Amino acid sequence: MIPLNLWEHHNAIKALYANCVGEVCQKHGVTRMELDILLFLANNPCYDTAKDIVEIRYLSKSQVSISIALLEKGGYLAKKYQKENRKTAHLMLCSKADPLVSEGRRAQERFLGIMVQGISEEDLTGMKRCMAQIMENIHYHLKEVK
Known about the structure:
The protein has helices at residues 6-28, 32-43, 50-57, 61-73, 98-116, 121-145; strands spanning 77-82, 85-93. The chain is mainly α. The protein has a single domain (7-119), classed as Arc Repressor Mutant, subunit A (Orthogonal Bundle). α1 (6-28) packs antiparallel against α5, α2 (32-43) crosses α5 and α3 packs across α4. The model has no long low-confidence stretch (mean pLDDT 92).
């Protein structure tokens, strides 16, 4: 039996994250999904399409599309098309997104700091290794199911 049931703590982790980023969303008048998309693009510059966001974050295609449209309308995002592929829109952060990204990253750091408070570097290293393997297992299984 697994001594720690991660799924039993999932909602508490989500609630803490929502608490940490909630002030940023409220201050700038954006939704959590919108902030998450901006942070995803800022933190993962090699993944810059709506499809990337949907596939990597396991989010709903419709929610991502709606949020991207609102971010574009608000001047936070711009779409860029490559000459050889006019179908795929590559998402670029606009300078208006800079304060949100900066404050959002600070909120993410605060969240992580709360999560790992009191855990030694050695334990964190082991935990990172275990989480990487868990995520690899999850991704492999989800690809096999499709």
